[in-house]
Structure prediction request, 294 residues.
Amino acid sequence: MKQLSLFICLTFFISVFGQNMDEVQITTTQVSENIYMLEGSGGNIGLSAGPDGNLMIDSQYGPLTDKIRSAITDINDATIKYLLNTHWHGDHVGGNENFAELGAVIIAHENVLKRMSTTQLMRAFSREIPPSPEVARPVITFSDDLGLRFNGEQVMVIHVDNAHTDTDAFIYFPESDVLHMGDTYFKGRYPFIDLSSGGSIDGMIAASNSAIFLTGPDTKIIPGHGSLSNKSELIEYRNVLQSIRDKVKSAIKAGKTLDEIKTMRPGKVTDAEWGAGFINADRFIEFIYNSLTM
Prediction:
């Protein structure tokens, strides 16, 4: 039954992103001396590789585990000691079970454990997500933040409230000056805001502001989705979200309906490019409208 539940969960997320796992290739980008970004299908993976072993951020989908392990081995043929999850969604935790069985200790915000332990309804897709197997759930949790030292540098794990979900965390390596933002940051694209998991447009903007405050001009930023980024691109992302949020808020105050606001095209300057990804312009307006009127 546990294997069936995980299969259903993974099938849902794979169908959302629409990729055949057999065709997915894992690509690696060296971000700093010890930090790497791995892209495949689903959320971007971060990796700290060094003498202490490997610390992994997110695990993508279970069917990709062997490919991910191979890519990590090419970087550092050592144990994966820790697996940090940026939030609970299946394209970021789908490989948790496999990596836990290989010995990785899973760490995440306490709300990740709560959501992975019970049935979840993702209203945006009208889908019910069953609980994950116990082995796939975090065994170390935190409420606000967590610190550890690994491979000779500090690792800061910071919870951000009600952004993409209520489970989100940044992972910052201050000495390498690398920040992994999870799905609080969809580079150059309108983001998915999971309102049924406690997400909100105001929280997304607040998360971006927190990251902007934390980072400097040379900080390398790993987004949840998209290529390696930087502070100036993150500021642009924040500005786009804030501008569209403010226009939708003003329209709501003027008594406009959701359909009327969509017709107004609050994001017309960026819709063609930013709405070309997973979330189109109309869907993004729906997220903002519902977030502001719930």
Summary: The first strand starts at residue 27 and ends at 30. Residues 231-253 form the longest helix (23 residues).
